[in-house]
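Any chance you could type out a protein's amino acid sequence plus the matching backbone structure tokens because I've never seen that pairing?

——
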Amino acid sequence: MDDLRQKYIDAIAGAADEAALEDLRVAALGKKGEISLQMRELGRMTPEDRQVMGPKLNALKDEINAALAARKAALGDAALEERLRAEWLDVTLPGRPRPRGTIHPVSQVTEEITAIFADMGFAVAEGPQIESDWFNFDALNIPPEHPARQEHDTFFMSRAAGDDRAPHVLRTHTSPVQIRAMQAQGAPIRVIAPGRVYRCDYDQTHTPMFHQVEGLAIDRDISMANLKWVLEEFCRAFFEVDGVELRFRASHFPFTEPSAEVDIRCSWEGGALKIGEGNDWMEILGSGMVHPKVLAAGGIDPDEWQGFAFGMGIDRLAMLKYGIPDLRAFFDSDLRWLRHYGFSALDMPTLHGGLSR
């Protein structure tokens, strides 16, 4: 028995890994192991011999189990030590800079627009993106036969069979916010309404979801001259050029009368857009004097009050100012694009500090 003990104690001490330990455990203590076979012989011994051999075999079994456990723990400690040595890191070295996020151009331009109009006394108004047919069309003097009210141009919300409530749409412009603002605040009022809008269109310069900002100013003596000054001041500040020339072209919008589309003087020499110079003109927005029916829908007496309104695409302004060629890239979530066109989160646009630092 002493030879058997020494044999396994030495083998266990020299085991190189846990697989070798398991082989030794089976050889000694498995069903057909040497120590297990010795314990089976106890039944054939005399009671006197059994009393002597039984405790010795049990002690041997316990000693082998203890040696196996100790060697397994030693191997585990050695493996951990080797892993720590291999994965060692000098924490005194300078750390790697963490990647920084950037502000999306649409968010940046929205902040720039808000800062400019806030300086002119315009507050920011907001409204729901799912609007009733009345707020989105009827209140804005858009007739039932107007193309914008057809399903090929507008996203109508589905209704259950038998639901006779007024239809709802994904708003096609932020003009419904103007109606809500007039109903809530009355006149006089000066607000801009930036936000998401939705239309059934998709190409290089159109997407089903895009961003608009619309402005509204109502008072007793407001005229087209005030509108022209506001838009000129906005373009001068937004494009950051001293000389801006706008051209107003007569147009038709159901919610304004008279209505005008606004072009800005520019040049495309060498494929680069330059605002405020050259012999070309580019349309940037629509505007006009608020229609009396729209004032009445907003709860304002058109015989006492009048005002102007305008609307422009935020995404389009971002493309023009920052040279972004494709509108669809705004919504692709491409990190490379965002890093290239994005803005620092700490560079908040202000008129005195600069809009696009």
Remarks:
- The radius of gyration is 40 Å.
